[in-house]
């Protein structure tokens, strides 16, 4: 366990007033600010971190954000002298187990620690059992599950028995689809990187979703470039669903950073929470979402809302908002930097550091998102839509649209007319 607080007496109080050996916990490090704590966490990778929220140099919110960016999955317990809603929300956003107010109640801290220990044990046991189970899955059952997901088997008893076989016994389920596109299937190096990306996604889902949010789920490969993930939710489904969306948002950001030099487009869609026997409807919702209008939390531009970008630099938030407000005209990064009173080179660096994307990428993605909305909600011609989202050249717009969605504008409308009919039918 690691303790992070700029107040000496708080750190000493935590260390000295509780018999940590009794709970088989070793304090392996301590720090006075988020920057030192981050460097230490990279070396120690502790199971548990107790951290203050208000600290010099790098505060607790930024520290938790950096932990996630560096894929340090320590369990977090936040302590604070401030009963502040924004801080509490940030703690929840970054997966903290509890938000404890100072002066610290030792009984509350011990109770939280015991809860964390149980979670760690549960995660480790789940990962071991999941890997063992995965190696012994019946091909017949796997095929039946695919048939159920794709709506070819609608019998409730068969669905129940098959989900139970895959240890999904929850009444409520969520389906996630992850599609990889815009890559050269004939290139050997591309295929190697695709394998790395797929392996990365499955490991992230196992360690950060299945083990932490729900011990009930399965990750299927629909084909070489699409995943279908079924997750069972028990307990407070609203809270778990929010955690799940946050985790997917982080996954997208991490993919953007880790694979930013590869020519991949990754689209994520998530269904609403459904009863287990509506799995086909959930799959259709997730597919529809990933192809048309992903949830704002999974779209880096959608994240321009303050509540979804806790920890992101204000300059980047403001730049994203300027994209949202000015996407339909010729807007440049020089203009945005000038209005924000910072240099263009600094803003370029901020976008790469915070989002793993360029300003231009974000502008195009938002324009394409708005174009999708217009294609499905109006009878405007393609050249008219191109003009409305900031492009005077309809041919160039169509090329960009194809690059970012995998469809021409006409194909997109045809596909979603069909998908929408299916969604209504089921």
From TrEMBL:
GO terms for cellular component: cytoplasm. GO terms for biological process: phosphorelay signal transduction system. SUPFAM superfamilies: CheY-like, Homeodomain-like. Keywords: Cytoplasm, DNA-binding, Phosphoprotein, Transcription, Transcription regulation, Two-component regulatory system. SMART domains: HTH_ARAC, REC. Pfam families: HTH_18, Response_reg. Residues 1-117 form the Response regulatory domain. It is found in: Cytoplasm. This is Two component transcriptional regulator, AraC family. It comes from Caldicellulosiruptor kronotskyensis (strain DSM 18902 / VKM B-2412 / 2002).
């Amino acid at each position: 366990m690691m303790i992070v607080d700029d107040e000496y007496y708080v750190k000493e109080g935590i260390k000295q007033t509780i018999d940590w050996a009794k709970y088989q916990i070793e304090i392996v490090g301590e720090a006075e600010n988020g920057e030192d704590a981050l460097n230490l966490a990279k070396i120690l990778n502790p199971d548990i971190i107790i951290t203050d929220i208000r600290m010099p140099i790098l505060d607790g919110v930024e520290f938790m954000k950096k932990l996630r960016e560096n894929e340090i999955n320590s369990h977090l317990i936040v302590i604070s002298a401030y009963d502040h809603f924004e801080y509490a929300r940030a703690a929840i956003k970054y997966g903290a187990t509890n938000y404890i107010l100072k002066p610290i109640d030792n009984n509350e801290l011990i109770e939280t620690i015991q809860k964390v220990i149980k979670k760690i044990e549960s995660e480790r046991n789940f990962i071991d059992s999941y890997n063992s189970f995965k190696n012994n899955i019946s091909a017949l059952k796997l095929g039946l599950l695919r048939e159920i997901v794709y709506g070819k088997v609608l019998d409730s008893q068969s669905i129940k028995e098959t989900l139970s076989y895959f240890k999904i016994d929850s009444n409520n389920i969520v389906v996630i689809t992850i599609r990889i596109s815009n890559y050269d299937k004939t290139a050997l190096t591309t295929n190697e990187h695709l394998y790395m990306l797929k392996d990365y996604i499955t490991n992230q889902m196992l360690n950060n979703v299945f083990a932490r949010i729900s011990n009930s789920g399965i990750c299927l490969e629909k084909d070489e470039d699409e995943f279908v993930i079924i997750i069972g939710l028990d307990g407070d489904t609203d809270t778990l669903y929010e955690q799940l969306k946050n985790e997917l948002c982080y996954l997208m950001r991490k993919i953007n950073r880790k694979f930013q030099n590869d020519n991949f487009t990754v689209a994520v869609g998530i269904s609403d929470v459904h009863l287990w026997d509506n799995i086909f409807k959930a799959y259709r919702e997730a597919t529809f979402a990933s192809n048309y209008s992903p949830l704002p939390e999974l779209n880096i531009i959608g994240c321009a809302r303050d509540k979804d970008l806790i920890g992101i630099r204000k300059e980047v938030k403001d730049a994203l908002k300027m994209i949202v407000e000015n996407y339909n005209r010729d807007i440049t990064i020089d203009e945005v930097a000038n209005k924000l009173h910072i240099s263009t080179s600094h803003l370029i660096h901020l976008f790469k550091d915070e989002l793993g994307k360029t300003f231009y990428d974000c502008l195009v993605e938002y324009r394409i998102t708005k174009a999708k909305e217009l294609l499905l909600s109006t009878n405007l011609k393609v050249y008219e839509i191109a003009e409305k989202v900031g492009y005077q050249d309809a041919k160039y717009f169509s090329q960009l649209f194809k690059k970012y969605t995998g469809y021409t504008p006409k194909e997109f409308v045809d596909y979603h007319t069909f998908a929408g009919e299916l969604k209504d039918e089921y």
